[in-house]
Amino acid sequence: MTSPTRWLEFGCRGGLFAAAAVWLAGCGGQVYELRMDETKKYFEFIEKQNVNLGRMWQGSGFALRPPVNYEIMPGPVIKKGKDGKVIEVGPDPRQPEFLGERKLPGLVAAWKTEYPGDNQQPRATGYIFLLSNYELFLQAEPNKDQIEKFHGYAVGELCAGLSVPTPPAANWIEEHFPRGPDYLPEKVYRTAILKPQPEINGVKYDVTVYLQETKPLQAVLITMSPQGARAPSHGHVAEAPLTERINRAMATYSNEGKRPVRAKPGTPANAGGAGGAAPAARPQGF
What we know:
By secondary structure, this protein is α+β, with helices and mostly antiparallel strands. Helix content is 27%, strand content 24%. It has two domains: 1-52; 54-276, Mog1/PsbP, alpha/beta/alpha sandwich (Protein Transport Mog1p, Chain A, 3-Layer(aba) Sandwich), CATH 3.40.1000.10.
């Protein structure tokens, strides 16, 4: 016959086992809730990306998901001979006429969107340009000095075309994207804002320049937006601050960071630039 002491011992042990089981079940529940909460946040992030951004574009090792309603601009017309070799590259329609005789150097891709305007602002076009020293690597005899100083040269040409002074070092600030917790790798830019005078086609623009370097490649992203503009509405989604969409787009930029390889003779590398490349399949949320 089992003594009362043994029954008490079994009872205590059973109680401990039961308590442990309840505690473990509680931990499991907390882990499950945390996972569900994280999954919910992730899908909310995906939804915000899809609402605010268009399709992912890729070309020449670069990638960018522009704000929604921004369309890729076609590159120059390329004529080829019967042997398939390029014999002529036409003028680049992506080069902005408002820069006059100046050209955006190393133009890789460009996007534009239309703002309908209202009683306070006329109809206007918004632009995003992506420039890079990519092409300089593909020259027969690459100029190391030009490659390494591309940022300064590109900004100088842009400012000269807009008739604005080149921002001094003190006017450039370091910005990190995305801002706050996110699911994308951090991007670091040096940025400055230009305010062209006089107006461009009757519109006052804010021009933001983003300098980014992933050695050996240097990139310059330029956004041109009518002052005070809001992002165009998209489907059932109401208008959103344009800066929010641009900030999200800047967080999606990437490049392979690899030294470009010159194409075989007779086949100019990236003839006409990468701007004519088709948008890549849309990765969910990125």
